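Annotated sample (chain length 180).
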Amino acid sequence: MMALMQNPHPPARPASRHLGFTLLELLAVMGLVTTLLVGASPWLQHYLWRLQVETVTQSWSADLQGARLQAIRTGQAVRLQRLNDCQPLPLATGDWRCGWQLLKKINQAPLLWQTTLAGEVLVTISPAQNSLDINASGEPAVGGLKVVFQAKRSLSTANARVICINTAGRLRMVKGSSCT
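Output written by the structure step:
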């Protein structure tokens, strides 16, 4: 009997004519991706507004705490004061959207540090004031303040954050636009 011998080299396959994607397949995938992006756009915009507000809130809080520590460390009063130069028109009293700077209270100099904002997040202090004095013991000179942070492009207060400063100088962060 003749043993069946296997061919060590199978016959070559015919060359495939399908080497890529068709235009119709590419258009279908691009249509699905576009639909997903359009559907996710409001959520993404809401997320970016919330991130901006959170970042500015954390920055203001950290700078206020840093100012308090600076006053305690040096034994000298300091002043956290708003910046005015990011808007073409003068800002209303209590509007800190351009940023803030920390100064030694004596002679308003030298500048200790500065945080500059582009005006995309509304930062308002009420009762309205353009500076916050901190005494040599690290206590804010004025208590009962409310600092509201809200995205300029968002009309909803759902993204707003508030820092409440009580009369003893303690900070409390709250979601929304009210200290209550």
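Annotation: Helices lie at 23-74.
Annotation: The two ends are 99 Å apart (CA to CA).
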